[in-house]
Amino acid sequence: MISVGIVGGTGYTGVELLRLLVSHPDVDLKMVTSRSEAGKSVAEMFPNLRGFTDVCFSEPDAKTLGACDVVFFATPNGTAMKLVPELLEQGTRVIDLAADFRLKDSAEWEKWYGMPHACENILAEAVYGLPEINREAVRSARVVANPGCYPTAVGLGFLPLIENGLVDDQHLIADAKSGVSGAGRGASVATLLCEASESFKPYAVDGHRHLPEIRQTLGVAAGHAVGLTFVPHLVPMIRGIEASLYAAVLNKTGVDLQALYENRYRDEPFVDVLPKGTMPETRSVRGANLCRISVFQPQAGDTVVVSSVIDNLVKGAAGQAIQNMNIMFNLEETAGLNRPALLP
Amino acid sequence: MISVGIVGGTGYTGVELLRLLVSHPDVDLKMVTSRSEAGKSVAEMFPNLRGFTDVCFSEPDAKTLGACDVVFFATPNGTAMKLVPELLEQGTRVIDLAADFRLKDSAEWEKWYGMPHACENILAEAVYGLPEINREAVRSARVVANPGCYPTAVGLGFLPLIENGLVDDQHLIADAKSGVSGAGRGASVATLLCEASESFKPYAVDGHRHLPEIRQTLGVAAGHAVGLTFVPHLVPMIRGIEASLYAAVLNKTGVDLQALYENRYRDEPFVDVLPKGTMPETRSVRGANLCRISVFQPQAGDTVVVSSVIDNLVKGAAGQAIQNMNIMFNLEETAGLNRPALLP
Amino acid sequence: MISVGIVGGTGYTGVELLRLLVSHPDVDLKMVTSRSEAGKSVAEMFPNLRGFTDVCFSEPDAKTLGACDVVFFATPNGTAMKLVPELLEQGTRVIDLAADFRLKDSAEWEKWYGMPHACENILAEAVYGLPEINREAVRSARVVANPGCYPTAVGLGFLPLIENGLVDDQHLIADAKSGVSGAGRGASVATLLCEASESFKPYAVDGHRHLPEIRQTLGVAAGHAVGLTFVPHLVPMIRGIEASLYAAVLNKTGVDLQALYENRYRDEPFVDVLPKGTMPETRSVRGANLCRISVFQPQAGDTVVVSSVIDNLVKGAAGQAIQNMNIMFNLEETAGLNRPALLP
Amino acid sequence: MISVGIVGGTGYTGVELLRLLVSHPDVDLKMVTSRSEAGKSVAEMFPNLRGFTDVCFSEPDAKTLGACDVVFFATPNGTAMKLVPELLEQGTRVIDLAADFRLKDSAEWEKWYGMPHACENILAEAVYGLPEINREAVRSARVVANPGCYPTAVGLGFLPLIENGLVDDQHLIADAKSGVSGAGRGASVATLLCEASESFKPYAVDGHRHLPEIRQTLGVAAGHAVGLTFVPHLVPMIRGIEASLYAAVLNKTGVDLQALYENRYRDEPFVDVLPKGTMPETRSVRGANLCRISVFQPQAGDTVVVSSVIDNLVKGAAGQAIQNMNIMFNLEETAGLNRPALLP
Fold it and tell me: What ipTM was predicted for this assembly?
């Protein structure tokens, strides 16, 4: 059994981690910390967990956390980086669901996140936890930077094209749409039901924090910097991301895009390339650790269109974090994650 | 392993049965029949099942179904009663998720369902599959009539009061609200997103088919006929039923209603009486085989208010059917059903 | 032209007042105050108003407000009562959309609203602005207490029965359901889309502030105190209230309930009794100043069921306030309010 | 007063036409036809119209329709073209909300709509009713082809760029999203609440019927054929379209895109260019005849991003049709259309 701690379990990635971990066959959930809710039963805050765990929120404390095999951070950006060095010293491995360790370039990080980085020295060793590109590195990582939700959907959607140099990677377009849970569980006017339901809008057109993260992933795959326009939108639903990706095919002849995608992801347990002509929908992955992808070349033109869907809280956050944990501890990669989506 | 067949797997109770059965540790899913979709892959129709089953819809056929240990009927009313006798002859046990075997009085059945009953002789032996009242009978039943969704929520909510004769059972009121999946997956204008979302309405005020079923359950518990006003409403959401129940307390003194409910359901794995003062919400049981109940006596008056929530597709249909199967085959009653609800 | 001021225009009743007033043929909108947003353009906060008004939020100031013919308060409870005396001195008439002047009994008010009342002396003259019972008093009122949303739906639904002594008025039951906009535009976790959508729940079962208000209205109609159990519920939609009302008919013979309701409301421009057998739905009044009502006696039993729907922001708040203004200033009662609901 | 007839008033564009026309100061609604609903009161089918019209559905009949000044067709594609010649003979003018007269090239029309065209000779004179490009032609038109919903949002969004030759018009990308009402009021599984809510998906990636229509509009503006990738998506809401448009700027220096858009639409009553840095949301135009547009050049790169929103049933259908009628009959262009959107 792996002993697990969670720092900051009061948000949506926190409760999703808990939902998945309480059914995980190899996990012993030791503690869930929350400064604001210390003493309160986790199941009182999240009634779906009544009967599944008796854990109460506790004060975060590096020493007791350090007794865990692995600690998940489901905290706001900037929290994990302050505690991680102390945990590593105690031999505890870390999976950060926030952004602290996602960007290799600390100057870039500071520009987008608006604060100095507290442990730049760890950035180099931290592994970007997208198993589909970094599985072997994850296996032995002490610190895993769990990818952002948009970067997971956009990255997995573009990778086969970029890795093979098939498209103009200086003018990539990612039109992404997310359910409201991506904005978190904090009280805010913009995400009230009365503001966000029955409406659709773009946001952060001028620049979203996930832009440099996607660029980094695709840049590594391309072997050089890529050009990307990334426009996120807010969808009136709770869970789900769909990313429609557009790129100009460099050479129209010869490449079977369907086969390319199927081959790239044939052995991936959590990426499902749909049959030719089929389009994905976010509900087909609701609650499941899965990315479903379709690839099109409309009217046989020179623009390739990829549609990629995930549940932002699962493959885009908590599920992928558990997938990383499974890899780190040599468990079945699918342990605790092998359930169908909830449909309808 | 129990070999299982499903007749009529193209509706919402069908796909929910499939979602739960493909993860059930003791089930071998042999066949899913559908006249209209025969030959089509189940996973093609329900993309959440891709990767979880290779079964294709087949033509319903009593002989091959008869090779299963148990057959679930997820069919329109009036279908099961035509096939069940033949299955029973082959030793196959049956769980009917439709209404064919729910009412003991065939005249009453014919009045509400508008057709003659095809096998009245089986009505007497059929067991009404609400485990909380009929667990022992279910264990040996050949035919289980799986309860309706409203009758499950209303029945479990009223039972402790009725069984103990604590309220005026001639003037019970059940104000029930259901998500739209209760209306099924058939194409109809009334359940289009544009008709049913962003709106709320009562329906069938003059008489809903679940009225006689609830009356029968409560009548058995009371030992005499009860009087009930039952008003269902349509809620703009996919899953969930909440029933607010009202009754006049016969004697205000002395009974601790909270303790009454907690004691009644203490040993029930799928009924959760909430702590005093807490109110249930349907999302706390989304996707889970669970009924959550609260009991109140507002302003210490003589009206008792009970709120009972279920997922209409799980404890109100497919989940309860699997719970019955578990009981019938001496499996752990919670096998395949012990997962937290999906929240948010 | 009536010169109009609004105090506190940043919430949902505020923006709804603005939406209706900018199209009102007899209104000159002079000012909208908001301490927190002073200086900001109203249309910047509420983009639906771009092109319809140039007004900016201003600091509330009794003197400039006093230059208006009428001032609407769309403020939290407890605000209007502090400014009203000063406005009345200047000859300005007041319509309070909050609760400050709704209860005649100041002790009761203080119990439910948790603060001392600042101008008890005005309570006696304030007119409870439900035109269907107080039209003549509204005409000459200096202060109109605009009814709460639930009290409007429940009150209009019960009145014909209570006024005619046809039911047991000691055991009335009102099972009411509201869209989320009833909870206001303040940032809060409970009304986030991810908390309130795809779910349904009761709340405030132990006692909601609208309970004494409904009791007061029905008590006046009955000529004595009534007994009422009132259970509100939260519906996953933006606008709309449906109240299902239950009462025991005292004498089953003789009364034609349909005719009773039709006669009671025949001359009311904003109450629509539906044809016998038809059920209302909240979307049929979305955005409209209208209460639609149906009355039933299921299975010809002794329980009468009434279903009453309104848009909580219109007939339950801003629309009714304008209806009151129209009456107070001898305008056409329907001026600015005579548009069909938005459907779908 | 203009005497008006509607053919086919049982769908969503039909009820929206009715909602707007019953409040139009210059319109006398003569008849609404529907073969299937003949004899039924319009207000019985659409309860929001109760009290606003007494019209009943009647059998379509060219002679009585010919007595109207103008006839709107809110019918499936292929219906108007069969009746229009007979109406024109009687001097009746026609506004077709379906696609029969939108494409100038009948071969193209037949390819996309799968049937022969019944009156090709009228195609040449029919005016494509996007007032922002064809106002003068609409004024004297006998037949107006009311634009499709996507073509309105995408066309208005791209026009300023295309008319001025500022972008690579061979690789335009339109990523469009629509509420479910765009799919109409016909019973179908795909648009059930339980299928379409809480989910997001692309559809018709291989080619949507609005593609040739958009190409035609942009081609005329460019003076040559354009290249366009158009991907529509389904949003879990009732009303609203958002189109995110992407194009490569040919010359990055010098053009002030914000000023370009503001100047282009300065005199348009129903196009609102938002202030720089502001993003549109569909709810800001819900129920209103308005297109709101923002233009961006993220990270000062060479990709321009335009976001354009409309209510698909209003500026995308019924409202634009009335705008065209107003122009055709020399009424105020804004008559009957000048109301704020319903928000929240």
Answer: 0.97
